[in-house]
Amino acid sequence: MNTAWQLWLQLFRRVPVLVVLGNVLRLAALYFAVQWLRGEPRLAPLTAWLFGMASWVWHIGQGFNLRSICIPESFLLPQFRRRLLEYGAIDIAIWVLLPLLFVFILKLPYTLLIASILPLVPAFGLLMGSNPRASVFIWPVFIVLGWAPRFFVELTDDALHSPLTPLLILALTALLLRFSLAPLLRIEDREADTSPLESTGLNRGSTRHAPGEPQRLGRLGKRLNALYDWTSQRAMNRALAGYSRRPDLAHRMLLVRRLLLPHDNPEAIALRIILVAVIVSFYFLAMLHRQRVEPAVIGAYTIMLSLSRFPQLNIGMALMRPNMADLYLTLAPETRAEYQKTISDALLILVPISMLTALTYTALGAVLVHAADPWHMLFVALIVSAAASLAALSLHLIGPESRTGRSIANLVILFGVMAVYWGGYWLVGATGYLIGGGVLAVVTLGFALTVWFAAQREYQQRAPRFDAPIG
């Protein structure tokens, strides 16, 4: 029992929001169940829905927790698998067997169907928590059913009266548990670590997990990773060849950029944009083909998407400190300020990359929603993304290193950028491109350049750090 208690504590420490939300939903389901038993039959569907949501949310947290616990080193602990089995048995007793007991006592209709659905909901949650890529395969099912709601209603009605439905649901539950638990119990060697400043988006959340946790990428993810690595190796070889031919400052800076930002070469940027474009196009064609979308919202979202890279810069630079000592010795700067300026100048390339990303996605969104005035969107996105990217780079270059501080800084940037974007969009629409765009550019770019020069001066005054971050 002590092991189960420790695992519950780990669950609360890792995903406190999901734990609190799951228990709140469960208490709400209990309250409405009492009202239902006291003579309110119309509350039965609400009770079932609340309990199902509570079980789903709780087991998403359980999957996320197990993903961080089931690392190769954990299997060296005595009777680790047995303790996990006991923990699972307690969880099944609480979320499946206990509600099932009430179902039999109350003699509810569709008892076998309810008994088969009770373990299905936790299996869905466990799969989505332990394997986030599962959403890619789960949501298309609901999208297809959304295209044919009448067929879905008829299918549900036939399933309620079919004796084979509970068996089919139990088989689906077993399949989901197999997909979620088998990778967790498999002991694998760790793959080579990627750069903390990689920008493929495939391992963006890996720094939030426990040290030693395998990446657990699927076949597609591994192939995409290999493709990104191939592009970075090609870009590095070109940079080395260029520096060999002409060892000047420009080629030296290019080498530093290829080292610090391996996946920000032209081929990798194009690959990243194409992948996102394919996903976004599928989403629009599948989900929004019957809805009207305000074009201005597209521009706001694309700017937020382009800025999502900069919080990773703060985390990645801290993780790379021990490796930066080799770069310092290789560059052999005359002063520490010279080394710091080299790093900040190398990272400045992220600003035009962020602008290119925002403009490309904005143009794609304008085409997909058939925007009446796409130039308005692109004009405002160009100015705001330039200023926002420069300001975000400045803040995260010298910003706080704690998780709370980073979150606060990121929220300040996002809310500020959204306020500037909507204000600028209205200003350009009301006063025209020349006056409105001029005022917007002077205010935003003036502020961003001031912040950048101040941040760069502060960064150059700091001593280089090569110690590994604590925790």
UniProtKB/TrEMBL annotation:
The region called Disordered is annotated at 195-216
UniProt KW Transmembrane keyword? yes
Q: Which residues cross the membrane?
A: 12-34, 46-64, 84-106, 112-129, 136-153, 165-185, 268-286, 298-319, 346-369, 375-395, 407-427, 433-455
Q: Which UniProt keywords apply?
A: Membrane, Transmembrane, Transmembrane helix
What superkingdom does the record give?
Answer: Bacteria
Q: Where is the composition biased (Polar residues)?
A: 196-205
Q: What is this protein called?
A: Membrane protein involved in the export of O-antigen and teichoic acid
From what organism does this protein derive?
Answer: Dyella flava
